[in-house]
Amino acid sequence: MIALSLAEIAAVVGGQTYDIPDPELQVTGPVVRDSREVESGSLFVAFVGERVDGHDYAEAVIEAGAAAVLASRPVGVPAVVVDDVQTALGALARHVVERLGATLVALTGSAGKTSTKDLIAQVLGSKAPTVFTPGSLNNEIGLPLTALSATDETKFLVLEMGARGIGHIRYLTELTPPRIGLVLNVGTAHIGEFGGREQIAQAKGELVESLPEDGAAILNADDPLVRAMASRTKARVILFGESGEADVRAENVRLTESGQPSFSLRTPSGCSDVTMRLYGEHHVSNALAAAAVAHELGMSADEIARALSEAGSLSRWRMEVTERPDGVTVVNDAYNANPESMRAALRALAAMGKGRRTWAVLGQMAELGDEALAEHDAVGRLAVRLNVGKLVAVGGREASWLQLGAYNEGSWGEESVHVSDAQAAVDLLRSELRPGDVVLVKASRSVGLERVALALLADGTEGEVSAR
Predict the structure, then answer these.
(1) Which of 114-128, 331-345, 452-466 has the highest mean pLDDT?
(2) 364 — alpha (psi -120 to 50), left (phi > 0) or beta?
(3) CB of 175 closer than 8 Å to CB of 144
(4) Contacts of 343 by beta carbon, 8 Å cutoff, 6+ apart
(5) Is 262 helix (H, G, I), strand (E, B) or coil?
(6) Rounded to an integer, what is the distance from CA 96 to the centroid of its chain?
(7) DSSP string, 438-468
(8) With 0-12 CB in 10 A as exposed, 13-18 as middle and 19+ as buried, what is 252?
(9) Which residues are 105's β-sheet partners?
(10) What pLDDT, on a 0 to 100 scale, did the predictor assign at position 461?
(11) Rounded to whole angstroms, how far apart are CA atoms 156 and 28?
(12) Of the given ranges (62-76, 122-136, 226-240, 402-416), which has the lowest mean pLDDT?
């Protein structure tokens, strides 16, 4: 964080100082909510959770070098005490962002947010110091913590914004007002909470509504609900996609033999070829979104193409491809799942597995509401149409719908199997995998299917799958 004294922080958040010998003492380390992340000069934010009260760690974090605690009650050590810790954290983030000279880029969408954010960070990072959201910490706590990690040297601040209802993104943009806003797509993720795609579009569009007149709204030309958001912003609109009307678009899209996308990137400033290290054709759209941001910030087509071709995956369990010594390839995409990302992963598996036996180990896609049965059935059917060698549906009711969809699609569906849990899936795979097979593992985060991938990558270890 940029250096601020405890007195300044108290003034910004409307708090009172307690047990602070020197109010001019500066916070020079990171702002953290996890006591294990404390460094010399940190500000520790004491949240009260269902199981853990951060205030209980106040003495320990000061001993570890923290300058003070941001707390909701006096804790007997140096502290800035406020009525609401989350509100105070947001106010501090807003203050720091306003003092920074960095360009703030925010993005949202139903699918691909984290992968696209990682691409943007790597492309912009090739040009100047860039701070970006780690993993998927895209909510009212993770976003301000990311913003507070920026320093005076930061040129670009890239923030992923998530939403579970109307007004969520509007709130996040008030904490960290962006100059560039990117909307990737409107899908069915969390549709059970929103009630429909139109409501999802309403929520995602709050990002472009927040942009200033001299800002830029970067919209997916291939998604009608996103493209329609052009009418909701005062900012200049830049379109990306494979549509001929897109300002930044891909031409001659193809996949390498290993399933990595290759295409010609065309921007208003020129054209250059890209071959990505990531897997799956769905990354073309993510790459175009990143390219549109980079073009807006002055990078040439050649610079963007070079950075996209060098970019890798920065976040865990998102199309992580690992080959075991025996030639089995494990694709760990188990961080999360929705219908759009599930279809993209299956298509990537089909491309990667040409001439090889493929396995799709799939589990529940959560928060689909009344659409759950139809969407799980459709994914099972798609696996059949893509000629995936075997579907292993893991879990309860939703997994049975996956398996039933595959079975009802045709005779191939007899190659599908429903197992009760991750350990049962591991046992099945250990008994039937053979060298050269490709295994995709994917489900919503709550299912914990990464345990299957990690067990397979343990290379012959025996026993139970370890708990998360």
Answers:
(1) 114-128
(2) beta
(3) yes
(4) 379, 382
(5) strand
(6) 24
(7) EEEEE--GGG-THHHHHHHHTSS--SPPPP-
(8) exposed
(9) 158, 180
(10) 42
(11) 20
(12) 402-416
Q: Residue 20's CB: how many other CB atoms inside 10 A?
A: 18
Nearest 5°: phi and psi at 330? -110, 125
Q: Are 189 and 197 in contact (CB under 8 A)?
A: no
* Burial group, residue 87, by CB count within 10 angstroms (0-12, 13-18, 19+): middle
Which amino acid, 97? Answer: V
Asked whether residue 232 carries a pLDDT value surpassing 60, the answer given is yes
Q: Which of 124, 185, 144, 136 is nearest to 335 (CA)?
A: 136
Strands 216-220 and 43-45, by their bridges, are: unpaired
Q: What is the mean pLDDT of residues 426-438?
A: 95
Contact (CB, 8 A) for 138 and 162: yes
Res 463: pLDDT: 37
How far apart are the C-alpha atoms of 33 and 413, rounded to whole Å? 48
pLDDT of residue 414: 62
Gap between the Cα atoms of 54 and 70, Å rounded: 10
- Which has the closest alpha carbon to 148: 214, 98, 103? 98
Which one is predicted more confidently, 344 or 275? Answer: 275
**Do the beta carbons of residue 119 and residue 87 sit within 8 Å?**
no
pLDDT value at 466 more than 70: no
> Edge-to-edge strands of the sheet including 43-45?
16-18, 79-81, 68-71, 43-45, 31-32
**Best CA proximity match to 196, nearest among 204, 207, 188, 185:** 188
Could you tell me the two tokens for 266? 């065309």
How far is it, in rounded angstroms, from Cα 211 to Cα 235? 6
How far is residue 219's CA from residue 237's CA, in Å, rounded to a whole number? Answer: 7
The dihedral sign for the CA sequence 307, 308, 309, 315: positive
DSSP string computed for 176-206 = S--SEEEE----STTHHHHSSHHHHHHHHTH
CB-based contacts of 407, cutoff 8 Å, min separation 6: 380, 413, 414, 416
| Residue 317: per-residue pLDDT | 82
Asked if 190 and 196 count as a contact pair (C-beta separation under 8 A), the reply is no
Kindly tell me if the per-residue pLDDT of 127 is higher than 80: yes
Q: How many CB atoms lie within 10 A of CB 167?
A: 11
Radius of gyration over every alpha carbon of the chain, rounded to an integer in angstroms: 23
